[in-house]
Design goal:
Elements (H helix, E strand, L loop, with lengths): L3 E4 L5 E2 L6 E5 L2 E9 L2 H14 L10 H6 L2 E8 L4 E6 H5 L11 E6 L5 E7 L3 E6 L5 E6 L3
Antiparallel strand pairs: 1-7, 2-4, 3-4, 4-5, 5-10, 6-9, 7-8, 8-9
């Protein structure tokens, strides 16, 4: 089976070494992963921390705060889905049309009939396929908070 993908464009990008994490509970399926929002958000996070803590130089910011600035965790919540599969990214890329253009991120899977079949989360090592006709809700939690 060959997949066609359509990238979902957002202001953030999936961290290149991140993998999707998922959990299934009574209220649905949640898929999450680390994202990099953008450089201006990173600068804003660091400047806010420096102002709140009377720090004059970025080198004085604690490592965990400095490293997390501009990063967040994004959560996709599915209230229902038809199927879920998880496979190594290397194996998954072998089944994708134009795989050389694929980077870690969130994609819509397009079927042979050109209809959307669900969502694909391509990570560094793991890829996750969620077959569903329902759109997920999204929430972002910043790591620097």
């Amino acid at each position: 089976m060959s997949y066609k993908l359509k990238k979902i464009d957002r202001q953030w990008r999936m961290e290149s070494v991140s993998d999707p994490f998922f959990k299934y509970e009574e209220d649905g399926l949640e898929v999450s992963f680390m994202i990099f929002i953008n450089e201006s958000e990173r600068e804003k996070d660091m400047n806010t921390y420096m102002q709140e803590n009377n720090i004059k130089d970025k080198q004085d910011i604690p490592d965990d705060v400095y490293n997390n600035a501009g990063y967040a965790i994004i959560y996709f919540k599915f209230n229902g889905f038809d199927s879920l599969s998880c496979v190594s990214t290397n194996d998954f890329l072998k089944r994708i049309d134009e795989a050389d253009e694929v980077i870690p991120g969130v994609y819509k899977e397009i079927g042979n009939d050109e209809k959307e079949n669900g969502y694909i989360f391509i990570g560094h090592d793991i890829s996750l396929s969620v077959r569903t006709k329902k759109n997920p809700s999204e929430a972002i939690k910043k790591l620097s908070c």
